[in-house]
Amino acid sequence: MGTRISLNHRNIDHLVLEKTLKAFYVKDNGNSPPYLHNLIRLAENTSLFLTDEMKQCLMEINDFHIEARYPDTKHSFYELCSKEFATAYFTKIKEIYKWLLSQMV
Fold first, then answer.
1. What would the pLDDT profile of 38-80 be if each residue is shown by its tens digit?
2. H/E segment holding residue 93
3. Which fold has domain 2-103?
4. What are the CA-CA distances from residue 29 to residues 10, 26, 48, 55, 79 (Å)?
5. Is residue 18 within 8 Å of residue 39, measured between CB atoms?
6. Alpha-carbon gap, residue 91 to 69, rounded angstroms
7. What is the residue extent of each domain of the chain?
8. Of 11, 22, 47, 58, which residue has the fewest beta carbons closer than 10 angstroms?
């Protein structure tokens, strides 16, 4: 059960970053964000300057949304989502989220 909770948390982690990036999209473009969940594509349509490391991390976090929501890929993601995996990504996600908030002027 603990792993399943981590699986759901990874999807929520993705949503936190997605909604934050969509806020930047609205701020920078003055209209509603597109109906997409790809964190890199959202960031590319803002004035944010992401490091290569951040881009790589966002690409990896994109998988959290897809794999946590669709049953055919859920099992492999379930197997991957150990406590160590979850802790490592939670730390990365928290750092990106704090950085994004610091850019909100």
1. 999 999 999 999 999 999 999 999 887 765 556 666 666 667 7
2. helix 83-103
3. Four Helix Bundle (Hemerythrin (Met), subunit A) (1.20.120)
4. 28, 5, 12, 21, 39
5. yes
6. 22
7. 2-103
8. 47
